[in-house]
Write a structure and sequence with these properties.
The complex is a heterodimer. Chain A contains ten helices and twelve strands. By secondary structure, chain A is an alpha/beta fold. In chain A, the strands form two sheets. In chain A, strands 1, 4, 6, 7, 8, 9, 10, 11 and 12 form a nine-stranded mixed β-sheet that branches. A two-stranded antiparallel sheet of chain A has the order 2-3. Chain B is α/β, with parallel strands linked by helices. Chain B folds into two domains: 48 residues; 251 residues, Alpha-Beta Complex (2-enoyl-CoA Hydratase, Chain A, domain 1), CATH 3.90.226. In chain B, 48% of the residues lie in helices and 17% in strands. Classes of the chains: A alpha/beta, B alpha/beta. β5 of chain A pairs antiparallel with β9 of chain B, so a sheet runs across the interface. The complex binds zinc ion. Zinc ion binds next to loops of chain A.
């Protein structure tokens, strides 16, 4: 079953709801009040301090893919409730709320698109959907995106944004890490390029699987990247974390990142790397 | 818990002690109370059945963490001979939270790697409570690749409360180290048998957990997150860990049902800690049996089946 969808909404429509008067917004980085139209033109990056506003998955489709076009696949995959999980809410209700809130079927959109005329198998995660967490649906959609890449011999590009594996699906969420990584091993054997793009935040189960396995790994500036969450680390070691710990810059400094790219340069750098890796 | 046994074990252990005292007394004083002892032994059997046949997930978590529970080094010592421990990741350090090397299993050379928690306080600190750093995952991978190079099967013992969450671990790429192991273990062309012998917490366990057969001891647990972690995030209250353990369905029977593990390895009545040798023998036999089966496959078949095994994992709805 293939699903086709053109993403038409402009970036501004995604952001409108969050702004009190609809015209101006406050930068989380420096507190400056910025004119919305200006911000949109600047890829939602503050001109004064370089703060990268958090984007929705559709915004990345608009920024990275030619004409903002994605031929979406597997939109019909939706989560089961393998554990009949309930904390303060039933898991199916949590999913339903997230669907309603985001208009998405789960925390990743996958499909085929073009980056400067080069066809790619593309995936982009959305933090708005249960913290971008990876359960069976995310794992399966990413797995199929990898397989699509292998079948069509086209590069794979995944934009990650995730707090990790989805607790409410228990061990099966954990297994998605092994599943996606194993398929990436196969893709790598076929010498098909995979570019992993990390955005704020990418941590835990996603960081410890496909997000870390790109031939080239690119991150936006000042994203939170890592395995364990900063709060857990602080609790464990009982001391304050150093300034800039687990940021993109920290990641690059320690050798786990190829490039830090500002949002306006992201498409150009991905496109160039795809050219070099072909 | 008093450090030696768990609260729910108390009645069993007290009765066992009473029977032992009576036997000693009978011997010492040369009195005839064998009928009384027999009756108590009957009661003990019934009590054991009551206590152990209906363990809650939380009780199993406690058994998996039992202070007397056998750890990886115990299994290595009891199951294999001629163990030569190999150290280091050849890049940064030797992670003591994971032990690995060559050994003979029923005479046959294998590589065996296990997370080791340590028993007393000093050892626990030395072993970092079985919580690995990136260099541990890299050491394990180095040994696995060495194993593959010389065509030896790989036996993995999992027992960890999680990968270590610390500054150094992040600086040295904990996420990358685990991700790389997941990728590489999917294509190492020798049989890999995974055995969860105690705690299997999250990515820290899975980081050495990709293989052809996945076995789980009856009273071990394996989960996306520890019950405490889950309780503190979702319930915002760590005292809700028993509920979290229940909700996460982290016990062996459930994992078998959803196809994440291949087999439950039985434990002696009361748990692995009640009889180390018997437990090691049971586990060893299962491993040998599985190795025999896997040896019948070509390398291509082996890897194909391994990838398929993980490819199938997951439950979702595909709407039409
Ligand atoms: Zn700013």
């Amino acid at each position: 079953m293939e699903w086709f969808r053109k993403v038409k909404e402009g970036l501004i429509s995604q952001k409108k709801k969050e702004i009190p008067d609809g015209l101006w917004t406050k930068c989380e980085g420096c507190g400056e009040i910025i004119y919305m139209k200006e911000l949109e033109k600047d890829f939602w990056v503050c001109k004064s301090c370089g703060f990268h506003f958090k984007l929705k998955s559709r915004d990345y489709i608009n920024i990275l893919l030619d004409k903002g076009n994605l031929e979406e696949y597997d939109k019909n995959l939706t989560s089961a409730d393998p554990l009949k999980f309930k904390d303060s809410k039933r898991y199916p209700d949590r999913v339903k709320n997230s669907k309603k809130k985001t208009g998405l079927s789960d925390a990743v959109i996958t499909g085929i698109g073009k980056i400067n005329r080069m066809e790619v198998s593309f995936g982009v995660m959305d933090f708005g959907f249960i913290g971008g967490s990876m359960g069976s649906v995310v794992g399966e959609k990413v797995a199929r995106a990898i397989e699509r890449s292998a079948e069509r011999k086209i590069p794979l590009v995944i934009v990650s944004c995730s707090g990790g594996a989805r607790m409410q699906e228990g061990i099966l969420s954990l297994m998605q890490m092994a599943k996606t990584s194993a398929l990436l091993a196969r893709l790598s054997d076929l010498r098909i390029p995979y570019i992993s793009v990390l955005t704020n935040p990418t941590t835990a189960g996603v960081m410890a699987s496909y997000a870390s396995l790109g031939d080239v790994i690119i991150a936006e500036p000042k994203a939170l990247l890592g395995f364990a969450g900063p709060r857990v680390i602080q609790q464990t070691i009982g001391q304050k974390l150093p300034e800039g710990f687990q940021s993109s810059e920290f990641f690059l400094e320690h050798g786990f990142l190829d490039v830090i790219a500002e949002r306006k340069d992201l498409k150009r750098i991905i496109s160039l790397m795809l050219e070099y890796l072909s | 818990m008093n450090g030696q046994f768990l609260d729910f074990e108390r009645p069993v252990i007290e009765l066992e002690r009473k029977i032992k005292d009576m036997k000693d007394f009978a011997k010492d004083k040369n009195v005839e109370i064998s009928r009384e002892i027999e009756a108590l032994e009957e009661t003990l059997k019934k009590l054991q059945k009551d206590v152990y046949s209906n363990l809650s997930p939380w009780q199993r978590v406690q058994l998996a963490r039992h202070p007397q529970r056998p750890h990886s080094l115990d299994y290595i010592n009891l199951m294999t001979t001629d163990f030569v421990e190999l150290h280091g990741d050849r890049a940064f350090a030797d992670d003591k939270a994971v032990v690995g090397g060559f050994a003979k299993l029923d005479g046959e050379p294998v590589v065996i790697i296990g997370q080791e928690k340590g028993k007393d306080t000093k050892q626990k600190l030395f072993r970092n409570f079985g919580m690995m750093h990136p260099e541990g995952y890299r050491k394990a991978l180095r040994l696995m690749l060495l194993s593959a190079k010389f065509d030896k099967a790989i036996i993995i013992l999992i027992d960890t409360p999680g990968a270590y969450p610390g500054i150094g671990a992040e600086e040295r790429g904990q996420a990358e180290a685990i991700a790389k192991n997941l990728k590489e273990m999917s294509r190492i062309p020798v049989p890999i048998i995974i055995n969860i012998v105690g705690e299997g917490a999250s990515g820290g366990a899975l980081g050495i957990g990709v293989g052809d057969k996945i076995f789980m001891l009856e009273n071990s647990w394996y989960s996306v997150i520890s019950p405490e972690g889950c309780a503190s995030i979702l319930w915002r209250d760590v005292s809700k860990s028993p509920q979290a353990a229940e909700a996460l369905k982290l016990t062996a029977p459930h994992l078998l049902e959803i196809g994440v593990i291949d087999k439950i390895i039985p434990e002696p009545l009361g748990g692995a800690h009640r009889d180390y040798l018997k437990q090691a023998q049971i586990l060893k036999e299962e491993i040998l049996f599985a190795l025999k089966e896997l040896k019948g496959l070509s390398k291509e078949q082996l890897l194909e089946k391994r990838i398929e095994k993980f490819r199938k994992m997951g439950q979702f709805i595909e709407e039409i």
